[in-house]
Input
Amino acid sequence: MDAFILQVLNGLDKGGAYALIALGLTLVFGTLGVVNFAHGALFMLGAFCAVIVKKVLTLERVELDPTQLTAWGSPVEIRTHYIEEWFGDFGTLLIDFSVPASIFLAIPIMLILGIVMERGLIRHFYKRPHADQILVTFGLAIVIQEIVKAQFGANPIPQATPEMFSGSADIGVLMGFAQNTVVYPWWRIIYLIFAGVILSSVFAFLQFTTFGMVVRAGMADRETVGLLGIDIDRKFTIVFGLAAVVAGVAGVMYTPILAPDYHIGMDFLVLSFVVVVVGGMGSLGGAVAAGFLLGILQSFASMNEVKSLLPGIDQVIIYLIAVVVLLVRPRGLMGRKGVMED
Amino acid sequence: MSNETPTNNSRRNILKGTVAIAAASTMPLIFSNKAFAANYTNEPTGSTVTFGFNVPQTGAYADEGADELRAYKLAVQHINGEGDGGMMNTFSSKALKGNGVNGKKVVYVTGDTQTKSDAARASAKRMIEKDGAVMITGGSSSGVAIAVQGLCQEAGVIFMAGLTHSNDTTGKDKKANGFRHFFNTEMTGAALAPVLKNNYGTDRVAYHLTADYTWGHSQEGSIRKYTESMGWKTAQAVPTPVGAGDFSQYITPVLNSGADVLVLNHYGKDMVNSLTQAIQFGLRDRQVNGKQFEIVVPLYSRLMAAGAGENVKGIFGSTNWHWSLQDAGSKAFVKSFGKAYGFPPSQAAHTTYCQAILYADACQRAGSFKPSAVGAALEGFKFDGLGNGPTEYRAEDHQCFKDVLVVKGKENPSSKFDVLEVVEVTPRAQVEYEASMLGGNLGPYNNG
Output
């Protein structure tokens, strides 16, 4: 039972990341009709916002100590963080909380990046075939990856969780298990809650605001909304920016779980596309439901008991489920008629 | 008849044409292979000899590849008599005089393995066929090393392996044209197990997470062999996909498995991620079977350990070489590399530098670049002064035998390069094994 609970938690956590990326993909596809293969790169750029903030906060004053030499004969460098020099304990606290603090940088950066990406490149491909859109966005993703690699190197750059969240929570005790039977890292619990809050906020924004209502109307019938005198293109540009922000903050908060490198977005992109297809192209609810479902199934498929019956199942389960779902429900779990069927 | 004549002519013409095209298309290859004069593939005829450095320049091990390339460039400088000479000054063989090899200046070409076997073979093939490389060296993966070694055997050039740790490279997949300076998982097991025994005792239950490819399986096999023989039990050994990223679903079953040691048979990015996540799950804070839970990372790389940050503190593993060693060779190499690049070299840089120097030295001693002659010069070659103490290139499997370093993540690092500390230098005699133990057959040399 304890293993079952832990795998459900793992699945929800993984599913949270899939759902956040898939939600943005679906938003872009549902509004602009663009299959955006650069969406994973936005997740990666968000993660690198955390890296940049950490780098800025840990900028150092370097002094050479000529009395001590390195093994290769140059003077030893003595490094001190500027921020700790200036602000003392508050500076140390800022460094400690660099990941959550990065969200404040990631939101405007990702919004601007999203809008620039849409206005500068992607809008030129609205009327082009999906194959062209895939090629150009995939190419863009590779360009972004290579720029990040040239700047930050190829190795993962770990980001620490704030000290107070670095341990594990003994959640099993709350459920009546013995101590230390069901423990789960605090940061993963926080990520799960964070994913829930972001997903709910996006849905509430689309459901309960006038802007959201117009966007939903535009998703259903873009032409009619345009005939009503609403500049739906501008609204959809903002939606693209919103999708970029969602992917970006998801990337920021994921960095203590998975050390970011230039390829992290691509690793998530393929799985997120499967999530979108299983959930149903253009269906926001479907994307979220499929994200969590596939996350949980992937976790269960990795259990030793399952793998001993079906070796290698953990590596193919998501694709297997995608095949089954598409055979039984060709439009995905909650797909709408007419989407990508013209 | 009048109808047949044109047909016959036509057929004859077609045959003539076919022969002419075949001959014409073959001629350039003949010339490019220098087959008229050459006794072996890419025999150098001018004033230079070309080495092929096949390293990961893109992909997950690009940083390690960049360090290998830095070391190769330094080795070429030193062989050609430029720079401070580095370990050429401490190397026991004095055949090289700092004027190139066999009177020829060394030049080099590079290829990008991308840490993919097919890409690595393609870049090695290009360097042999188009650039005239007489030797291929480098790499940061056993899968790649085995693939490129096979290609070099077919092409008739020497392969001086880079960072490859699987037993198979000089075991079941060994080739006459292939040579490895780096140690292997068998040596890691033999060196690490006694240290684990001294620190953690003989009554332990281990849980292995293993990268699902040749190196991972080799590593797991060796560690299990040596830890089980000293009394440890293995609760479970679980293969994990390479590049899984999030290992949480593989780590959670460890929590209540009854194991009190987690062995991470992961390298590179996978090691950084799995170790970080295992620590996030509080494994090192647990008490299991009345003992403190421990994590072991059998193969360390300083570059990767730096990536894992504070998580490596106190964790045991092994390494081929470390820049903090105080022998004359290591000090000379660190000084030379540090002066050139501003930081100390990694074990990948060290092994590739050694391979370039060892190859050049063997060619000089053989008086030829012919693979069989160079191989004969390397087989059974005993040397010192290259940072690992007295070392031998064993003739039977083309594996270097030398002392092995057992290291531990440093508790109080003095700099970002100072992440590992050497806890034991395991003598060569303790890690040596019969060549026949790992199977395989070298076969004959191929000179092309």
Q: What stands out?
A: Chain A has one domain: 2-326. The first strand of chain A starts at residue 60 and ends at 69. The longest helix of chain A spans residues 2-32.
